[in-house]
Design a protein that fits this description.
The complex is a heterodimer of chains A (294) and B (298).
Chain A: H1 10-39, E1 41-42, E2 51-52, H2 56-62, H3 65-96, H4 103-109, H5 118-128, H6 138-142, H7 153-181, H8 185-193, H9 198-209, H10 211-227, H11 229-236, H12 248-258, H13 262-293
Antiparallel strand pairs in A: 1-2
Chain B: H1 6-34, H2 38-41, H3 54-64, H4 67-98, H5 104-113, H6 123-131, H7 135-143, H8 159-167, H9 171-182, H10 185-193, H11 198-209, H12 211-226, H13 230-235, H14 239-242, H15 245-251, H16 264-284, H17 286-297
Helix pairs in contact in B: 1-16, 3-16, 4-8, 4-9, 4-12, 12-16, 12-17, 15-16, 16-17
Classes of the chains: A mainly alpha (294), B mainly alpha (298).
Chain lengths: 294, 298
């Protein structure tokens, strides 16, 4: 789209866009380029400039079972947390959209978890699901040692899934509700006239009509679970026990800053970047689809 | 809506009420835990009704987490990111939409691509740049073989280091651009006819029209930057002076690791302090927050 009326002072145009371009160059393009450079070079142990090593860093990363462990965990975490929060959010939105008395209250409270910082969520869940104090510990009274995220990898994995999906339910709920409210009333009313019950209308009319929002949310949720989960993992489990919750961003942070191996961390960053870019491309395709739907 | 379905209505009410409890119970537990003394909070099962030590715990947590200083830092950072984003994004979107030059679309795409890779994905190299923000320019000067030495500009342990990298994304630019494109052409034409220049048109017509979008962007940016965790963790090593609120949470985790008794009541009180500002902002400015979410993601 173009504007018919434009201004012609090009110096002004340059001055207006300069701050943004400077920031983007220094804090986005330069670092991203440097990550590429680091990924194909190695720093010599006694100083001097980096040596070209080609694919060596990637080979090191890919031949490390710990890396594949982290990839597996990240993918499992992303899909499970996304599924859980999307199913719950869709169900809540469908029933809130029935607009029975009191639905305003739900509308104004369900999104609250999303306002919290990831480490806040993590700390709250660490306490709630702690094995020897807090809310869930009561089940250990009944069945001793049933739940212990500090020792049992599965428990820890479940814990971060709960925390992540709790946080995202509110976000997904807002989008589902907006999508439902944009469905013309006449469509559902026509369904009702034809004798479709409330549940039948939800399943056959409303859910298919919000499918584009669903696709969009799947991508957003997966990206968020790759990116924003750092705070949750760092506060609840620190990647443990025995690397059971060692998500990709956490491993990059650990290798890069605790292990001081920039080349290895850069190679992992590149892989993660490609993954996120692929997801974003998928999202753009669905956004295009979305425009056609509406 | 149209028919009577008492059974389903009952089910709906029960389901929503149950979800309401399930979704908000973590908040309640955090609050209850923050209001008990050390012994009560570690009971199994834990009490579900608030105790009497709330203010005491809050005071201890405030002291232990150095929150007087840390909250101020968080407010400065969140305010700086919000303000920077609103101003810089508006300027660049104005340049892209209301001026015609050849590089326009190239620049737009260069900005737009930054949406793809969040800061968390490229922390390692961004951290290296933050150690000396002028290094990209120095490297380019060296490339051309000109012997100029720029000074080192270290962003670690500074407000600019906490703020600038968070401002360098496309969220706001894209939002403003979408909005500017919907502003009728006649407005700019009329302004030009009346002899207004670009700056005047921008300040007196375009910005007042964008107020709702600015409010939405500001709300979302405030909450987002307040909740940043990984970046502050890296940039700040001078914990006394530059730590942000979210960073303090990790230090307050009670754990048997350090041989301390699990002081959950203090940890939860600190958590309440940290989560209060973003939660209050979303509740009070709810309309803008929801609107901001919708417009920034499209």
């Amino acid at each position: 789209m173009e504007k018919r009326a434009t201004f012609s002072n090009l110096w002004l145009a340059a001055a207006f866009i300069a701050p943004q371009m400077l920031l983007v160059f220094v804090f986005f393009y330069w670092p991203t380029g440097e990550a590429l450079y680091w990924a194909v070079t190695l720093e010599p142990p006694f100083g001097g400039s980096n040596e070209w090593v080609g694919w060596l860093n990637f080979e090191t990363v890919f031949s490390d079972p710990k890396y594949w462990n982290s990839v597996r965990i990240s993918i499992a975490f992303a899909s499970l947390a996304t599924m859980l929060s999307l199913v719950i959010a869709a169900m809540l939105a469908l029933f809130v959209d029935r607009r029975l008395p009191g639905h305003q209250l739900y509308k104004f409270t369900f999104f609250l978890p999303y306002a919290l910082a990831a480490p806040s969520v993590g700390l709250a869940f660490r306490f709630i699901f702690s094995p020897d104090a807090g809310f869930v510990s009561a089940i250990n009274r009944v069945w001793p040692n049933l739940w212990n995220p500090a020792l049992d990898g599965w428990d820890a994995f479940l814990l971060i899934i709960f925390a992540q999906s709790w946080k995202m339910v509110g976000y997904n709920f807002i989008f589902f509700l907006a999508a439902l409210q944009s469905i013309p009333r006449s469509v559902t009313e026509a369904g009702a006239m034809d004798g479709a019950s409330v549940l039948r209308r939800m399943w056959d009319i409303q859910l298919p009509l919000i499918a584009p929002t669903l696709f969009f949310l799947i991508v957003i949720n997966i990206t968020d679970s790759f990116v924003d989960s750092f705070g949750i993992v760092d506060v609840t489990t620190s990647g443990g026990p025995a690397r059971a919750t060692d998500l990709m961003v956490y491993k990059i942070y650990f290798d890069g800053f605790e292990g001081k191996d920039y080349s290895l961390a850069a190679a992992q960053s590149i892989v993660l970047m490609l993954l996120i870019i692929a997801l974003t491309f998928i999202q753009f395709r669905f956004i295009e689809r979305r425009i056609h739907y509406s | 809506m149209i028919e009577r379905s008492p059974l389903l209505d009952l089910f709906t009410h029960l389901l929503l009420l149950a979800s309401f409890v399930a979704l908000l119970i973590p908040f309640w537990i955090v609050f209850v835990a923050a209001s008990h003394d050390f012994h009560t909070v570690n009971q199994v099962p834990m009490p579900l009704w608030p105790g009497s030590s709330f203010f005491e715990n809050m005071a201890v947590a405030w002291e232990r987490g150095n929150f007087g200083r840390v909250m101020l830092n968080s407010f400065i950072v969140a305010g700086g990111v919000t303000l920077g984003k609103i101003v810089i994004a508006a300027l660049s979107a104005f340049s892209i939409v209301y001026f015609k030059y050849r590089l326009r679309m190239v620049l737009f795409w260069l900005i737009f691509i930054t949406l793809m890779l969040p800061l968390e994905v490229r922390i390692v190299p961004t951290y290296a740049v933050a150690a000396d923000a002028l290094r990209p320019f120095q490297s380019m000067i060296d490339l051309f073989g000109i012997g100029i030495n720029l000074p080192e500009w270290n962003l670690l342990n500074s407000y600019s280091g906490l703020i600038l990298p968070l401002v360098a994304t496309a969220t706001g630019t894209f939002l403003y651009r979408q909005f500017f494109l919907t502003v009728p052409d006649e407005l700019a034409e009329a302004a030009k006819m009346d002899g207004a220049g670009a700056i005047r048109f921008f300040l007196e017509i375009l910005l007042p029209l964008s107020r709702t979008n600015m409010a939405a962007l500001a709300t979302i940016m405030f909450v987002w930057s307040w909740n940043q965790y990984l970046w502050p963790l890296l940039v700040v090593t001078d914990q006394q002076n530059f730590a942000t609120a979210t960073m303090q949470l990790q230090k307050l985790i009670p754990g048997p690791l350090f041989g301390e008794p699990p002081v959950w009541n203090i940890a939860m009180a600190a958590n309440l302090i940290v989560l209060a500002p973003p939660v209050l902002v979303t509740i009070v400015l709810q309309r803008w927050f929801v609107r901001g979410l919708m417009v920034t993601e499209k």
